[in-house]
Amino acid sequence: MNIDNDALLKRFMSYIKIDTQSDDNITDAFPSTEKQFVLANLLVEELKSIGLADVTVDEYGYVMATIPSNTNKKVPTIGFLAHMDTSPDMSGKDVNPRVIDDYNGDEIVLNKDLNIILSPNDFPELLDYKGKSLIVTDGTTLLGADDKAGIAEIMTAVEYMVNNPDFKHGAIRIAFTVDEEVGRGVDHFDVEKFSADFAYTLDGGGLGELEYENFNAAGIKVSIQGKNIHPGYAKNKMLNAIVIGQEFNSMLPPQQRPEHTQDYEGFYHLYKFNAEVEKAEMQYIVRDHDLECFKQKKNTIEKIAEYLNDKYGDGVVALEISDQYYNMKEKIEPVMHIVSTAIEAMEQLGIKPKVMPIRGGTDGARLSFMGLPCPNIFAGGENFHGKYEYVPIESMLMASKTMLKIIQLFEQKA
């Protein structure tokens, strides 16, 4: 498969220049930011220019397209998806990327003035990419490889199929989604309209990653109502919401924080704490691969709230708990051939598959529970959501080839 590497790079560089950052503070609009439509509309025009006729973007920003089957065999309709938004955790505006050719394994100075350095001492996986071409940031924004690398890889594979009619395949469905980074990526996704038998998201990390297990996930908001009394006269009267919030967090097991967990270990993650004496608000995400452990974690939160309300007074601590997504493993296991085919595709390309649980979630997790089994394969990037994000060009190329090889294998086996 002779894929145009320069076209792939050009696409990716053009996509990351478009600010598509989603906003987790906006819940009354979908998508959360209008600027995601800028990339959506660009992709619609690009798909049409490649030669696809069945190209749409709907009121929610979802882009869909079809590559019709060119084989007489009865082949399942396969979908491929990537998301257009970037993380709300760091700016995706004015991304200024740089290509490091033939990386030599040394530290990379991302920003001399700010002394921001991408070092293998901090990120040892960098050494896996010696000799490769790395796309890095300038240290002031994220890069956007999550998931504009996936978009570029899918678009490049689509163009290859259109330009090479001898490459036989069944019907292929393409979709680009919005608001994945804020957990609402498929809130309005029409699975019936997409009409695929199964799909893959290209939203994973390093070369060879393949995931069909993910966290069960919940978002938890803790509201604490204090009493602000003049500190000189506060004895037996003041309720300091800041202190109660600290007490709440200290009652959670410290070894189950993200910085102390890996692999299948779940966690409680406090990611926002806005507080003053009168009122405090804390926001957590709770994660666990095991459903029973997931339930226990939520129960622990509830018991802590009950204890503090008994201690300080009814209603001082209020909880809002909302489940976000569940482990897609149970939906993938009945169709494990879609995972084994992806493994075979990588092996035929000389890629060592790394089957692992996702320590996060993807659109594919929710889609699997909506009736569209959807494991996740690598897009190639590392250090997502921050200024140290980078992606090897060679990994992006192999992601496109993996997509094409999966398609080819299903046609050959039909």
Features:
414 residues, Aminopeptidase, globular, alpha+beta, Alpha-Beta Plaits, 2 domains
Question: What is the topological layout?
Answer:
Layout: H1 5-16, H2 36-50, E1 55-57, E2 63-67, E3 78-83, E4 98-100, E5 108-111, E6 116-118, E7 134-136, H3 145-163, E8 172-177, H4 191-194, E9 198-204, E10 209-211, E11 216-225, H5 241-250, E12 267-275, E13 279-288, H6 291-312, E14 317-325, H7 329-332, H8 337-348, E15 354-355, H9 363-369, E16 376-378, E17 390-392, H10 393-413
Parallel strand pairs: 3-8, 3-9, 9-16, 10-15
Antiparallel strand pairs: 1-2, 2-8, 4-7, 5-6, 7-17, 10-16, 11-13, 11-14, 12-13
- Portion of residues in beta strands equals 15-25%
**CATH fourth-tier homologous superfamily of the largest domain:** Zn peptidases
Strand order of the largest sheet: 1-2-8-3-9-16-10-15
The succession of helices and strands, N to C, reads: HHEEEEEEEHEHEEEHEEHEHHEHEEH
CATH fold name of the largest domain, please?
Answer: Aminopeptidase
The assigned structural class equals alpha+beta
Helix content: 25-40%
Mean pLDDT: 96
What Rg do the Cα atoms give?
23 Å
The overall number of domains is: 2
Q: What is the helix tally?
A: 10
Instruction: Provide the CATH architecture of the largest domain.
Output: 3-Layer(aba) Sandwich
Main beta sheet strand tally, sense and closure: 8 strands, mixed
